[in-house]
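User: Design a sequence. Structure:
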C-alpha cells in the first residue's frame, strides 16, 4: 500500500498542474465570452 501512495503522490502533482492549467483556460474563455456579451449590450 505504501508504494501505491508514493506513486499516487507523484501522479497527483502532475494531475494538479494539468488541472490548474485547464482551469485557467476555462476561466480565460469565460472572461472572454463574458466581456464580449457586455460589449454587445
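Assistant: Done.
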Amino acid at each position: 500500500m505504501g508504494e501505491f501512495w508514493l506513486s499516487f503522490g507523484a501522479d497527483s502533482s502532475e494531475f494538479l498542474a494539468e488541472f490548474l492549467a485547464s482551469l485557467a483556460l476555462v476561466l480565460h474563455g469565460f472572461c472572454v465570452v463574458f466581456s464580449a456579451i457586455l460589449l454587445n449590450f
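Residues 12 and 18 are 10 Å apart (CA to CA). The mean pLDDT is 82.
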